[in-house]
Design brief:
Order of helices and strands: EEEHEHEHEHEEHHE
Helix content: 25-40%
Structural class: alpha/beta
Radius of gyration: 15 Å
Oligomer: single chain
Number of strands: 9
Strand content: 15-25%
Strand order of the largest sheet: 5-4-1-6-8-7-9
Length: about 200
C-alpha cells in the first residue's frame, strides 16, 4: 500500500523583535561573523526545509541586508505590527505561508543560536501530513522549533496574541514531543555574546 509523501515544509523564522533585553534586534546579533538572522535561515535550509519565510520588523532594512545573497529559497516579509509581540509576527508569517500553499511550517526563533540542522532534521521527521503537530523539547522542557501542519495554521493564527505566539493553541491541542536535548540546549539568548 503506497504511503503519501510528507508535506512540503517551509521554515518560518520569527525575527521581528527589537530585542529590548539584548539591547538590539536579535536578528542583527553577530556570532563568528554571521548575523543570527542569516545563521537561523541557513540552519532551516541545511536541516531540510524546502524554503524559508523570515518575518521582520525592528531594523527591517538592516535584517534584509543581512539576508542578502542567501538565495531564492529565502523570502522576507514585513510585520507592520511587530511591536505588539510575537503573536503578530506569527500571524504575519502564517498568512504568507497560506499564500504559498505550504503543507507545513517549522516555526523557529532567531534567538536560538545553538539549535542546528540536526534538530531541524529530527523535527521534519515528524512531518507526516497536514495534521502534523509537534514541538521540540530539551531534556523534557518544551521549546522551538514547532512543527505545524497546514490544518493548524488558522487555529494558531486565531489564538496568537501578544508575546504568547502559539502557546495557547499548543496547550489545547497537545503536540507530539520530539526530544532534542541530545542535540542542543534550546535556550533563547537574551544577553549579548561576549567578544
Amino acid at each position: 500500500m503506497p504511503t503519501s509523501a510528507p508535506p512540503r515544509v517551509t521554515g518560518l523564522l520569527l525575527a521581528a523583535g527589537a530585542g529590548r533585553r539584548m539591547g538590539m534586534p536579535k536578528a542583527l546579533v553577530v556570532t563568528d561573523g554571521v548575523p543570527w538572522v542569516r545563521r537561523a535561515a541557513d540552519v532551516l535550509l541545511a536541516g531540510g526545509c524546502a524554503d524559508v519565510v523570515v518575518v521582520l520588523g525592528a531594523a527591517e532594512q538592516e535584517a534584509r541586508d543581512a539576508l542578502a545573497g542567501v538565495g531564492p529559497r529565502v523570502a522576507a516579509v514585513a510585520c507592520p505590527a511587530w511591536a505588539e509581540g510575537m503573536g503578530e509576527s506569527l500571524r504575519t508569517g502564517l498568512a504568507a505561508l497560506r499564500e504559498r500553499s505550504a503543507g507545513a511550517a517549522l516555526v523557529h526563533l532567531v534567538d536560538l543560536p545553538d539549535v542546528g540542522p540536526a534538530v531541524v532534521r529530527r523535527m521534519l521527521a515528524a512531518a507526516a501530513g497536514p495534521a502534523a503537530l509537534a514541538r521540540a523539547a530539551y531534556d523534557g522542557v518544551p521549546g522551538h522549533p514547532v512543527l505545524l501542519g497546514a490544518d493548524h495554521f488558522a487555529g494558531v493564527a486565531a489564538l496568537a496574541a501578544g508575546d504568547t505566539g502559539a502557546r495557547e493553541y499548543l496547550r489545547r491541542h497537545r503536540p507530539a514531543v520530539v526530544e532534542c536535548g541530545d542535540l542542543a540546549g534550546g535556550l533563547d539568548v537574551d544577553a549579548p555574546p561576549r567578544p
